[in-house]
Amino acid sequence: MISLERPAVRAALRWLPAALAVTALAAFPFAVTKPYPINMGVVLFLAVLMGSAWNVLGGYAGQYSVGHAAYFGVGAYTAVLLFERHQVAPWFGLPAAMLAAVLVGVVIGGITFRLRGPYFVLASIAVAEIIRLAALHFRSFTNGAEGFVIASAPSIHLLGVELSFGTKRSFYWLTLALAVAAVLVSRAVLRARLGYLLLAIREDQDAAHSLGIGLSWNKNLALAISAALTGLAGAVFAGYTRFIDPSAAFGLDVSVRMVLVCLVGGIGRVEGPIIGAAILIPLEEVLRNPGGLETVGLLPRGSELVAFVGRWISPAHLLVDGLIMVLVILFAPEGVAGLLRRLRARRRESAAAAPSPAP
Amino acid sequence: MALLEIQHLSKFFGGLAANADVSFSVEQGDIVGLIGPNGAGKTTLFDCITGFHRPDRGEVRFRGVRLNGKSPDKICKLGLARTWQKVRPLARLSVIENVMVGAFARTRDPEAARAEALEQLRVVGLLPRAAQAAGGLPIGERKKLEVARVLATGPTLLLLDEVMGGLNPTESDEVIELVLALRKAGLTFVVIEHDMRAIMRISDRVVVLNSGEKLAEGTPAQVVEDRDVVAAYLGEAP
């Protein structure tokens, strides 16, 4: 008989909820085929992927980059340029995109990691803007403001299954798998030696330095992991939307959204980007395009609510982002994950304080 | 050969000489007290030795290796570690995680680091606090944490910057006993301290700094008799 006390069984039980959730998400497209929720899934999974990527550098090492669009854009352009100019299949474009993002990251890190605090934040924004302007300017290489429209989307064969890069469903599963992988990478980093060193750097750089921690090496290591995942997201995003231009790839809003997902969910916590994306993305998608709720039958056709939101809120849906940010900073400075953890601790405390039943 | 040799070391901030032509050496197994009035350049000297400042003149050698220009993390890994006058706990990490960070200077394995951290927490008597957040400790225990963390890096020479400052007499005595026990176990110390009672008790030799210069060096008894030292602390005799 299997005892619930055995460590292996206990470990399996701990993973069970996460495994069930991922399985349910993976099965979802078989139940619902409407494009609206599938699209929302892709956007959400990309946000988890990018948030986890940002978290490794921003959350663990405390290096608040607001210029991650640089790595996102380099990843996107690398995959697209390889495909459009050299007919390299997207499947091979993905690792190339990651590599390119890492290389750019190490150069940027070498320059900006000397700076601390707000100076680092400003430099990270400036570098990303320089790259965006360069992408606009060097038209022979990047097509400038026109960007690229990817006309044909090849399919790939993986283990005998044809995955077409043309369908939303393939992207749904691809981005789900990548989001899960990113969360696992983020968790592994936090539990390894590197995670402790990054947290030490975040808490006090001089103290960390005096304890034998090389600052620039470890920050660059965190950046390399972060940039690789972000570049990957960029390449997948470009393949999904089949269009990139400098503002979609390198825009400041790309960087800000990565920070926002972590800020709302909980900076420096593995589950932070998952929670943040799960709150922000559906809200944003619904407010931006409330009509989608009618197509999936959640609201009746011609609903007044949809008309109202479409008329008054959709044009200003970014204001809602701002509002959420203000609320989080005021009431949950450690994000929703931090808030949940605090509530749980308080409940445990009051349970411990309550008189225990007599033996 | 001495374990630590400081030769003609000078450090300038603008026109001000924070350290001017300071020389002394520390033998294996010594406890050297470093004293002097406020602003004498004691902490600057520690910063120069541990790589946080680059000496403008002179040199620092540890086991014969020249340290000038080496980064603090490299110097720590050579076995020369320091504590901070103003304690620097990694506030949002737990007490044991703080010490694990130190232990990672020598191991890559988190389990080995945890075992080492538990051992050092036991040595300084912080074991009951292991799971607490370091930011919530009272000052006395923060100082002990500072010592446990730096011990975990596996130093041969420890620079202690006022680890007894702000402690009550009982806590001070505990730290003194700890330093003496660690010396018995083979460690070497340079200790900055204002508490003369403590300095007299633990030091084999005392180096006195004043206005960045070395004023005197000798046994504790010699130093307190030294007229220049008395003058520096109390003002010129009439």
Summarize the structure.
The complex is a heterodimer of chains A (about 350) and B (about 240). Chain A is mainly alpha-helical.
Question: How would you characterize this protein structure?
Answer:
The complex is a heterodimer of chains A (359) and B (238). Chain A has one domain (33-351): ABC transporter involved in vitamin B12 uptake, BtuC (Orthogonal Bundle). Helix content of chain A is 75%, strand content 3%. Chain A is built from 17 helices and four strands. Chain B is 37% helix and 25% strand. Chain B has helices at residues 42-49, 72-78, 95-103, 110-124, 139-151, 169-184, 196-202, 220-225, 227-234, and strands spanning 4-13, 16-26, 31-35, 57-62, 65-66, 80-82, 157-161, 188-192, 205-210, 213-218. In chain B, helix 4 packs across helix 5. Classes of the chains: A mainly alpha (359), B alpha/beta (238). The A-B interface holds A 191-193, 196-197, 199-200, 203-204, 206-215 and B 50, 52, 71-74, 76-77, 81-82, 84, 88-93, 97, 100-102, 104-105, 107-110, 113, 149-150, 153.
Taken from the alpha-carbon principal axes, the silhouette of chain A is globular
| Oligomeric assembly | heterodimer
Classify the beta-strand content of chain A into a percent band.
under 5%
**In CATH, what is the class of chain A?**
Mainly Alpha
> Major beta sheet of chain B, specifics?
6 strands, mixed
CATH architecture title of the largest domain in chain B? 3-Layer(aba) Sandwich
Low-confidence stretches of chain A: none
* Whole-number mean pLDDT of chain B: 93
Specify the CATH architecture of chain A. Orthogonal Bundle
Largest sheet of chain A: 2 strands, antiparallel
Task: Supply database-style keywords.
heterodimer; A: 359 residues; mainly alpha; ABC transporter involved in vitamin B12 uptake, BtuC; two-stranded antiparallel sheet; 17 helices; 4 strands; B: 238 residues; alpha/beta; Rossmann fold; 2 domains; 6-stranded mixed sheet; 10 strands; 37% helix; 25% strand
